[in-house]
Design brief:
single chain, 190 residues, mainly alpha, Arc Repressor Mutant, subunit A, Tetracycline Repressor, domain 2, 2 domains
Length: 190
Protein backbone atom coordinates (compact mmCIF):
# COMPACT_ATOMS: atom_id res chain seq x y z
CA UNK A 1 0.00 0.00 0.00
CA UNK A 2 1.37 3.34 -1.08
CA UNK A 3 2.23 5.84 1.64
CA UNK A 4 0.55 9.12 0.77
CA UNK A 5 2.53 12.20 1.76
CA UNK A 6 1.47 15.50 0.29
CA UNK A 7 4.33 17.86 1.10
CA UNK A 8 6.10 19.42 -1.88
CA UNK A 9 9.20 17.28 -1.59
CA UNK A 10 7.16 14.07 -1.55
CA UNK A 11 5.11 15.23 -4.53
CA UNK A 12 8.30 16.05 -6.46
CA UNK A 13 9.78 12.65 -5.61
CA UNK A 14 6.67 10.78 -6.73
CA UNK A 15 6.60 12.84 -9.93
CA UNK A 16 10.28 12.07 -10.61
CA UNK A 17 9.66 8.35 -10.11
CA UNK A 18 6.54 8.51 -12.31
CA UNK A 19 8.48 10.30 -15.07
CA UNK A 20 11.36 7.82 -14.77
CA UNK A 21 9.00 4.86 -15.20
CA UNK A 22 7.28 6.52 -18.16
CA UNK A 23 10.61 7.28 -19.86
CA UNK A 24 11.80 3.71 -19.31
CA UNK A 25 8.59 2.36 -20.86
CA UNK A 26 9.64 4.03 -24.11
CA UNK A 27 12.90 2.09 -23.99
CA UNK A 28 11.94 -1.37 -22.76
CA UNK A 29 9.10 -3.60 -21.75
CA UNK A 30 7.51 -3.18 -18.32
CA UNK A 31 8.62 -6.63 -17.17
CA UNK A 32 12.23 -5.78 -18.03
CA UNK A 33 12.25 -2.63 -15.89
CA UNK A 34 13.61 -3.02 -12.37
CA UNK A 35 13.27 -0.80 -9.33
CA UNK A 36 17.01 -0.14 -9.73
CA UNK A 37 16.40 1.15 -13.28
CA UNK A 38 13.70 3.47 -11.99
CA UNK A 39 15.70 4.90 -9.09
CA UNK A 40 18.77 5.35 -11.30
CA UNK A 41 16.69 7.26 -13.86
CA UNK A 42 14.94 9.36 -11.17
CA UNK A 43 18.21 9.90 -9.31
CA UNK A 44 16.77 8.91 -5.93
CA UNK A 45 17.83 6.35 -3.39
CA UNK A 46 16.27 2.93 -2.88
CA UNK A 47 14.98 3.90 0.59
CA UNK A 48 13.34 6.98 -0.94
CA UNK A 49 11.58 4.79 -3.49
CA UNK A 50 10.30 2.45 -0.78
CA UNK A 51 9.22 5.39 1.39
CA UNK A 52 6.68 6.17 -1.34
CA UNK A 53 5.89 2.89 -3.08
CA UNK A 54 5.74 -0.76 -2.10
CA UNK A 55 7.09 -2.00 -5.43
CA UNK A 56 7.20 -1.31 -9.16
CA UNK A 57 3.53 -2.29 -9.60
CA UNK A 58 2.54 0.20 -6.91
CA UNK A 59 4.41 2.96 -8.78
CA UNK A 60 2.80 1.82 -12.04
CA UNK A 61 -0.66 2.00 -10.42
CA UNK A 62 0.13 5.51 -9.19
CA UNK A 63 1.32 6.50 -12.69
CA UNK A 64 -1.83 5.09 -14.25
CA UNK A 65 -3.99 7.01 -11.77
CA UNK A 66 -2.09 10.21 -12.62
CA UNK A 67 -2.72 9.63 -16.32
CA UNK A 68 -6.40 8.83 -15.75
CA UNK A 69 -6.82 11.93 -13.59
CA UNK A 70 -5.45 13.96 -16.51
CA UNK A 71 -8.01 12.31 -18.83
CA UNK A 72 -11.06 13.06 -16.67
CA UNK A 73 -11.88 16.23 -18.59
CA UNK A 74 -11.90 14.21 -21.83
CA UNK A 75 -14.41 11.75 -20.42
CA UNK A 76 -17.24 14.16 -19.66
CA UNK A 77 -20.11 13.22 -21.95
CA UNK A 78 -21.80 15.85 -24.08
CA UNK A 79 -24.93 13.75 -24.58
CA UNK A 80 -26.73 10.91 -22.83
CA UNK A 81 -23.66 8.66 -22.56
CA UNK A 82 -21.91 7.98 -19.28
CA UNK A 83 -18.42 8.75 -20.53
CA UNK A 84 -17.14 10.39 -23.69
CA UNK A 85 -15.53 7.27 -25.02
CA UNK A 86 -14.57 8.80 -28.40
CA UNK A 87 -12.11 11.12 -26.65
CA UNK A 88 -10.68 8.20 -24.69
CA UNK A 89 -10.36 6.03 -27.81
CA UNK A 90 -8.67 8.96 -29.56
CA UNK A 91 -6.20 9.37 -26.71
CA UNK A 92 -5.33 5.67 -26.86
CA UNK A 93 -4.96 5.92 -30.66
CA UNK A 94 -2.50 8.81 -30.22
CA UNK A 95 -0.55 6.82 -27.61
CA UNK A 96 -0.70 3.56 -29.59
CA UNK A 97 3.07 3.19 -29.88
CA UNK A 98 3.40 3.04 -26.09
CA UNK A 99 0.44 0.65 -25.82
CA UNK A 100 1.94 -1.51 -28.55
CA UNK A 101 5.30 -1.70 -26.74
CA UNK A 102 3.50 -3.03 -23.68
CA UNK A 103 0.86 -5.16 -25.44
CA UNK A 104 1.80 -8.56 -23.98
CA UNK A 105 3.18 -7.30 -20.73
CA UNK A 106 2.16 -6.94 -17.11
CA UNK A 107 2.19 -3.15 -17.61
CA UNK A 108 -0.76 -3.24 -19.98
CA UNK A 109 -2.61 -5.70 -17.75
CA UNK A 110 -2.07 -3.32 -14.83
CA UNK A 111 -3.28 -0.41 -16.98
CA UNK A 112 -6.53 -2.20 -17.80
CA UNK A 113 -7.07 -3.31 -14.17
CA UNK A 114 -6.46 0.15 -12.70
CA UNK A 115 -8.33 1.84 -15.53
CA UNK A 116 -11.39 -0.31 -15.01
CA UNK A 117 -11.42 0.30 -11.26
CA UNK A 118 -10.88 4.04 -11.76
CA UNK A 119 -13.61 4.50 -14.39
CA UNK A 120 -15.99 2.25 -12.49
CA UNK A 121 -15.80 4.60 -9.53
CA UNK A 122 -16.31 7.67 -11.75
CA UNK A 123 -19.28 6.10 -13.54
CA UNK A 124 -20.90 5.03 -10.28
CA UNK A 125 -20.69 8.67 -9.12
CA UNK A 126 -22.19 9.86 -12.42
CA UNK A 127 -25.04 7.34 -12.19
CA UNK A 128 -25.77 8.44 -8.62
CA UNK A 129 -25.82 12.07 -9.76
CA UNK A 130 -28.29 11.26 -12.57
CA UNK A 131 -30.73 9.28 -10.41
CA UNK A 132 -33.84 11.13 -9.27
CA UNK A 133 -34.07 11.58 -5.50
CA UNK A 134 -35.58 8.59 -3.71
CA UNK A 135 -35.23 6.40 -6.84
CA UNK A 136 -33.94 2.91 -6.09
CA UNK A 137 -32.34 1.31 -9.19
CA UNK A 138 -33.15 -2.30 -10.07
CA UNK A 139 -29.44 -3.20 -9.99
CA UNK A 140 -26.89 -1.78 -7.51
CA UNK A 141 -25.00 1.13 -9.06
CA UNK A 142 -21.62 -0.43 -8.30
CA UNK A 143 -22.56 -3.43 -10.45
CA UNK A 144 -23.89 -1.25 -13.27
CA UNK A 145 -20.68 0.81 -13.23
CA UNK A 146 -18.53 -2.33 -13.21
CA UNK A 147 -20.49 -3.68 -16.20
CA UNK A 148 -20.11 -0.43 -18.14
CA UNK A 149 -16.37 -0.17 -17.55
CA UNK A 150 -15.87 -3.87 -18.26
CA UNK A 151 -17.61 -3.41 -21.60
CA UNK A 152 -15.47 -0.37 -22.41
CA UNK A 153 -12.21 -2.07 -21.45
CA UNK A 154 -13.10 -5.15 -23.52
CA UNK A 155 -14.02 -2.99 -26.52
CA UNK A 156 -10.74 -1.12 -26.14
CA UNK A 157 -8.79 -4.39 -26.00
CA UNK A 158 -10.64 -5.66 -29.10
CA UNK A 159 -9.99 -2.39 -30.93
CA UNK A 160 -6.25 -2.53 -30.16
CA UNK A 161 -5.95 -6.26 -30.94
CA UNK A 162 -7.62 -5.66 -34.31
CA UNK A 163 -5.39 -2.69 -35.21
CA UNK A 164 -8.08 -0.05 -34.66
CA UNK A 165 -10.33 -0.81 -37.65
CA UNK A 166 -12.91 1.86 -36.73
CA UNK A 167 -12.60 5.51 -35.83
CA UNK A 168 -12.86 6.60 -32.19
CA UNK A 169 -16.24 8.15 -33.01
CA UNK A 170 -17.55 4.88 -34.45
CA UNK A 171 -16.25 2.99 -31.42
CA UNK A 172 -18.19 5.39 -29.19
CA UNK A 173 -21.37 4.72 -31.21
CA UNK A 174 -20.83 0.97 -30.88
CA UNK A 175 -20.17 1.29 -27.15
CA UNK A 176 -23.30 3.39 -26.59
CA UNK A 177 -25.47 0.98 -28.63
CA UNK A 178 -24.20 -2.00 -26.68
CA UNK A 179 -24.29 -0.48 -23.21
CA UNK A 180 -26.90 2.27 -22.82
CA UNK A 181 -30.04 0.10 -23.21
CA UNK A 182 -28.82 -2.23 -20.45
CA UNK A 183 -27.93 0.67 -18.17
CA UNK A 184 -31.34 2.26 -18.68
CA UNK A 185 -33.05 -1.08 -17.90
CA UNK A 186 -30.90 -1.63 -14.81
CA UNK A 187 -31.80 1.84 -13.54
CA UNK A 188 -35.49 1.11 -14.08
CA UNK A 189 -35.87 3.52 -16.98
CA UNK A 190 -35.75 1.15 -19.93
Amino acid sequence: MRIQKDDRRSLRTREALHQALFALLHEKRYDAISVQDIIDRANVGRSTFYAHFVDKDDLASYSIEQMLDALVHLSRPAGPGLIATAALFEHVRQQFTLFQMQMRDRGLELFFERGQAYWSQKIEQELQRRLPPEHEPGVPLALVANHVTGAWVNLLKWWLDNKMPYSPERMEEIFQQLVLPGVEAALGRG
